[in-house]
Structures
1.
Amino acid sequence: MLNSLSGRFLILTTVFVMLAEVLIFVPSVARFREDYLLDRLERAQIASLTLLADEMIDPALETELLDNAGVFNVVLRRDQMRELVLSSPIPGEVYEDFDLRDPTALELIEDALRCLVDPTNRVIRVMGNPLRGGGELIEVTMETAPLRAEMLDYGLRILLLSAVISIMTAFLLFLAVRKLLVKPIKGVVGHMQRYAEAPEDAHRIITPSAGVRELREAEDALQSLQTQLTQALKQKDRLAQLGGAVARVSHDLRNILTSAQLFTDRIEMSEDPAVKRMAPKLVNSITRAVSLCENTLAFGRAEEPAPSMMLFNLAEMVNEVLEAERLAIDGHDISLSEDIPAGLMVRADPEQFYRVLSNLIRNARQAIIGTGAPGEINVSAQSGESDWIITVTDTGPGLPPKARDHLFQPFQGGVRKGGSGLGLAIVAELIRGHGGSLSLLRTDETGSAFEIRLPMGDL
């Protein structure tokens, strides 16, 4: 109970209300003390009127008048003369004087607190203004014990009333908090628990209904999070199924390509000049296809092999990739060019970097063919201070907004209709495996430019 939100709110409310009542209690007691002393002055003045009316009164009556006023003697100052009107024996010396003619609030509070904490019965002198022009000043002497007793009784009644008010207020607030906050929060927690049991079930997504603005915002955020998570889980489930199918296909395809690789060994022994010229390219293509199948199987097991780093001539590899792409252009008006120093050597995994360049150039070629207009693809490279910079530019239509928003994300950054968006995701992953980076320099209606940065490391 006390560890709950409503329980702690109940305790805090009670404490704060009591604190507020204490702050009110001190000036209230000070005001009660002032009223008590003024009442004694008024009674003393009324008692003195009897003597003024008849200068000779019985001593017993005088004593009765002083007891009724609660004072020992009464002094009036009139016409610049100080006159002892009523008197009786004083049990001790006057301890302190208090002037009530023009006291400040701080003085009243200080005097009241000193009276409360001092249990000693003392004799004090109190001065004030007489009522209805009854003179210039009236003074009385009195004991502090009755005053302190009255102040304690008043204070206890104030504290008891404050406690009752604070408890009632806290209880009402407790009920309000349970209805307006705790119950809706428990409802949200219940939704979260039911959703956690079956996050793939879209029917368990929360429907915002809270009337409190902050809680409604929390429900809206939870609904958005649950919707995204449900979609992501469904997509991951489809990807898992697709991964299993791709692994089976890659396994069978690898066996077929291995058999084809054996046949290419015989083709290489042919005396036909055209066959001799095309056979090495065919062998390289089949080798790369077998390697791709093996890498796909490894990727399905979440075991993408680490790159085998070695130095190779970048210009030769780019020429090889461009030659393969020229075969796929098939009569389209697309020019392929490269601007790479002939002796530029880079350190990377040749097979993986071939896949990187092939994916980027193929994406550019398909984008240009999709427009039906002529285009150009260029690959350039240079050596920086600490890395190699390779840039692939094209004059295609540029990337659409969806592709830019989900760049390098599989199954979301596709450009072509029906495209999966895997190409750029694979390229980015391979480059990260080399310790490098892939970035989009620009994309607009005049084309796109991708930049690859490979760290040189210790050559």
2.
Amino acid sequence: MRTINAPAPQQTGPALWKVEDEDTTIYLFGTVHILPANVQWFSGNIARALETSDTLVTEIPEGAMDEPAMKAAVVAKGTLPEGKTLRGLLNPEQRQQYEAALTQLGAPADAFDRYEPWLAGITLAVMPLIMNGYDPESGAESVIEAAAPADATRLALETAEQQLDFFDKLPPKSQVAFLMSSAKDLDRVVAMMDEMLNEWLEGDADSLAALMNSEMTDPVAATVLLHTRNERWAEWIDARMDEPGQVFIAVGAGHLAGEKSVQDYLAQRDITVTRIQ
């Protein structure tokens, strides 16, 4: 059975878990992909776990999305076929909400007309954060990569192209739902992200996951973007436990709390997960 230990009073900061046997320790750390540059969080148990690990595992290889080939793939996968426009996929109410969101950002109504809904949704979610001091270059993964031992093996659970496909292959209805979750709450994006950041820094994993996944109301998107991946990652962890060593896994914090989390799928495999911070 899974065991989640409450952190000791002196332990503060983002949540950290571990899975271990006689010769293998695997740490599970939930990241936030975009953070303000001045946020200080890397210390204590997290720093020690990373610095003593011989393997660092992330969702995708560090910097993979910045490769020219991947930037081209984003354009190719995220562009609608000729003759179609994003606003043409929306009903009148959706179109009104979407255009209002663009106006709020100071962008023309046709700014993302060539985008598929999933790409427009990601863009709408990120733009207000960047405009308010959040920086993808300051995300937790960047800090972890820089602090990891230089000789540590780097592995990834997925490829960058796989992650693009998760979004690109969503049914049109699910893509539009994903877009509208960003558009209709645009004026709350920064406030919600500030709240998520506070929950993350306090180590309140359950509240953080609830906030992160609250807009994931479409069951198809939730299955594709969260649950199926969590189950596959738990399978990877199970197999990796057969090899000795110390592994630090850093994945989005929304994957490590709530129903059908990585820990839930590990529990189904009778693997004990212990919270250490």
3.
Amino acid sequence: MLNSLSGRLLILTTIFVMLAEVLIFVPSIARFREDYMLNRLERAQIASLALLADDMLDPALEDELLKNAEVFNVVLRRNEVRQLMLSSDMPQSISQTYDLRDATAVVLIRDAMIRLISPKNEVIRVIGAPVREAGLLIEITMQSGPLRMAMIDYGMRILILSAVISVFTAVLLFLAMRALLLKPIARVVGHMERYAQSPEDASRIIEPEASVTELRAAEVALRSLQTDLTQALKQKERLAQLGSAVSKISHDMRNMLTTAQLFTDRIETSEDPIVKRMAPKLVGSITRAVHLCESTLAFGKAEEPGPTLTVIPLSQIAEDVIEGEKFASGEDAIAFKCDVPATMMVRADPEQLFRVLSNLVRNARQALSGTAEGGEITLRAVESDAAWQIEVVDDGPGLPAKARAHLFTPFQGGARKGGSGLGLAIAAELVRGHGGTLELCGSDENGTTFRVTLPKGGSIS
């Protein structure tokens, strides 16, 4: 109970209400003390008026008047003359004098607290103004013991009433908070528990019903989160199934390509000049295809190997990429340009870097193939003290808005109809493995530019 939100709310409400009552108690007890002494002054004034009406009062009657007023002496100042109106024997001398005529709230509170904690029964003098302007001042002497007991009795009644009010207020607030807040929170928690049992079930997604603005906002946010998670889980399941299928296909494809690789060994022995010129390209393409199948199988097992970094001439990889895409372009009016310095050496995995640049150039070629006028693709590179920057630039129509929004997301960032978006996602992952970045520098009706940045991280040896 104490660890629950409702239990703590009940306890805190009771404590805070009691604290508020205590803060009210201090000035209340001071006001009670002031009223008590003013009441004694009024009684004493009434007794003194009886004496003024009859100068000769019986001593027994005078003593009765003093006892009724609960004072020892009454002094009344009228017309600048100070007169001892009534008097009796005092058990002890006067210890304190209190003037109520000009007392401030701070003084009254201070004197009340001192009197409340002081157990001594002392004789005190109280000075006040007579009611109805019946003189300049009235002064009495009285005992402090009855005053203190009356203050304690009043204080106890205040505290008991405060406790009752605190508990009553806490219970009402608890019931209100339970209906307005705790039950809706319990409902949200229940929805979360049911959804956690089967997050793929869209029927378990919460529907906002709370009337409290903040709780409804929380329910709306939870619904959005559950919807996204359910979709992500479904996509993950589809990707897992696709990955299993791709792994099986890659396994069979690797076997077929390995057989084709054996035949290329025979082709290389041909004396035909055209075959001799084309054979190395064919061997290189088949070798890369075999490596790709092996990498796909490793990725399907969550064992994608990291890049094997070596120092390689970038121009050779760039020319291989462009040469392969030239053959793929066929009769399309697409021009390819390689602007990579022949002496530029980069530290990278040659197979993975080839895949990155091949994906980028292929995407550019496919974008230009969809236009009647064709265009130009440029692969260029620059070097700085910190990194190598490789750019693939085309003058095509630019990427669609949807492709830019999900550029490196598999199955969502396809730039053409029927495209899966895997090429850019794979390229970005391979570049990240090198510690670099792949970014879209710009894409509009004038063309598209992708930039690969590979950090140096040391000198080239």
4.
Amino acid sequence: MKQPIFVYYQRDDFYQNYRRYVKSRNDAQLGDKSKANDFTNCDPEAKMVDGKLIVPCGLIAWSLFNDTYKLIHNNVTFLVEKKDISCKSDRDHKFGSDVFPTNFQIGPLKGGKTLDPSIPLSKKEDLIVWMRTTALPTFRKLYGRIYVDLKENDTITV
């Protein structure tokens, strides 16, 4: 296989098309810092227990896929590059470069991955990929790319 090699993850029986799940997000909040206090449609993940607002809010963001993988070939771990795995239009227009995670996955109950509050949402490509919901309960999403050529009969340990 010639590089780049695309690495996907697959989820089975995960209903991203469930009505309450799909509606539990606020696109204005994701794209504009001035709308960070808007938590319309974010229930049940709009506020923390102590009343602080969550950015990004909603069930979709809260359930962000948090599995990690290590791919090893000849005792060398591949670097899985996560740059440019999301749609450019999503990065440039739907997720703000001035919007940063606030109060996200803080507290006793966590649903998914923790987001670094110093990196804007437009740079969190795994979040952007996850937020593009699917129509079917079994789906694959791009996890990253490997920039190494593989030869026939190479063995990769996951």
